[in-house]
Design brief:
The structure is a single chain. This protein has a single domain, classed as 4-Layer Sandwich (Chorismate synthase, AroC fold). It is globular. The chain is of the alpha+beta class. It is built from eight helices and 18 strands. The longest helix is centred in the last third of the chain and has 22 residues. A hairpin with a 4-residue loop joins strand 1 and strand 2. The strands form six sheets. A five-stranded antiparallel sheet has the order 1-2-3-7-4, covered by helices on one side. A five-stranded antiparallel sheet has the order 9-8-10-16-11. Helix 1 crosses helix 3, helix 1 packs across helix 8 and helix 3 crosses helix 8.
């Protein structure tokens, strides 16, 4: 097993959902960068649970402690180690789940992989709780990118079939990303957002859950980032994004819709604008040949419904090797999409920064 990813900015995550804490080690940050810790705290709060009837009641503050690599307000250039203590675990909720496998979770696959020695409480290392370090990393990466005029933002584009206004594929204002980040439920169309929230609450009332889609954009990226074949920006982003629990699909630009379009429509035709090459459309999501082409990088991530639901489900008991039924108790999100938005943003910002710096070597 490895919990490390990255080329120039290597990120290692550690911890379990119901252990003493979680965190990360970030290796490769440039020395002397002044991290705005208040801005990082705001990003962490966007993901933190316990703030809304739409989310789990687990009340983790996602407060962090920087153990090393940061001195007198600036990065030192040595590995930056961050600890995020766990403070509101109800481990007793999981005592019966040592051998009774939860459908949709990694209980069975994890138990097989680690010969039963994995921490199963709350999903252990497989838990969405481990996305908090990703948000920390992303918050730092966003600040470094902003110094270069590059901005990353995301919103909920769909929940259970209800759709928000999509991003303009030719680009959005950086202020639009900032405005979305201030919202508890980040959508462009608040009326659609209200409808989504009602569906989430209805799912909660019926002991069920719903999923959705997050749309993410990075603007002002220069052309030339990425390399064929195996270090394309798409493949590097997909690698990291599919590491986020519950993400089950990624599409860049028009994605699967491109398969239904003729080449004359799918191709992004080009023109000069004040000496810069641009395209009239952005069907390819700002990436061609695995390399940025100067247009906004645009992708969507599909997030499955929360697998922890209070309905009766069929499953197996490994201790008795028998079929059984399970009703999951405890505190769970009826929809994790809204809390996943800063995670998707953070992962995208980190990967883009990593590849940007790698291209400068």
């Amino acid at each position: 097993m490895t919990a490390t990813l990255g080329e120039k900015i290597k990120l290692t995550i550690f911890g379990e959902s119901h252990g003493l804490g979680i965190g990360c080690v970030i290796d490769g940050l440039p020395p002397g960068f002044a991290i705005d810790l208040d801005a990082v705290k705001k990003e962490m709060q966007r993901r933190a649970p316990g703030k809304s009837p739409l989310a789990t009641a687990r009340n983790e503050k996602d407060a962090f402690i920087i153990e090393s690599g940061f001195f007198e307000g600036r990065t030192t250039g040595t590995p930056l180690c961050v600890l995020i203590p766990n403070s509101d675990q109800h481990s007793g909720d999981y005592s019966k789940l040592k051998n009774v496998m939860r459908p949709g979770h990694a209980d069975y696959s994890g138990k097989v992989k680690y010969n039963g020695f994995n921490d199963y409480r709350g999903g252990g290392h497989f838990s969405g709780r481990l996305t908090a370090p990703l948000v920390f990393m992303g918050a730092v990466a966003k600040q470094i990118l902003a110094k270069r005029g590059i901005y990353v933002g995301a919103h909920i584009v769909a929940v259970a079939g209800v759709k928000d206004t999509p991003f303009n594929p030719l680009g959005e204002r950086a202020d639009t990303f900032s405005e979305l980040a201030q919202k508890t439920f980040p959508v462009l169309d608040d009326a659609a957002g209200n409808e989504m929230q009602q569906l989430i609450l209805a799912a909660k009332q019926s002991c069920d859950s719903v999923g959705g889609v997050i749309e993410c954009m990075a603007i002002n990226l220069p052309a030339g980032i990425g390399a064929p074949f195996f270090d394309s920006l798409e493949s590097r982003l997909a690698h990291a994004l599919f590491s986020v629990p519950a993400v089950k699909g990624i599409e860049f630009g028009k994605g699967f819709a491109l398969a239904q379009m003729p080449g004359s429509e799918a191709n992004d035709q080009m023109y000069y604008d004040n000496g810069m090459v641009k395209t009239y459309t952005n069907n390819n999501g700002g990436i061609t040949g695995g390399i940025t082409n100067g247009m906004p990088v645009l992708f969507k991530a599909a997030v499955k419904p929360t697998p922890s639901i209070a309905k009766v489900q069929k499953t197996v008991d490994l201790s008795t090797e028998s079929n059984t039924e399970l009703v999951i108790t405890g505190r769970h999100d009826p929809c994790i999409v809204q809390r996943a938005v800063p995670v998707i943003e953070g992962v995208a910002a980190w990967v883009i920064l990593d590849m940007l710096l790698a291209g400068e070597k």
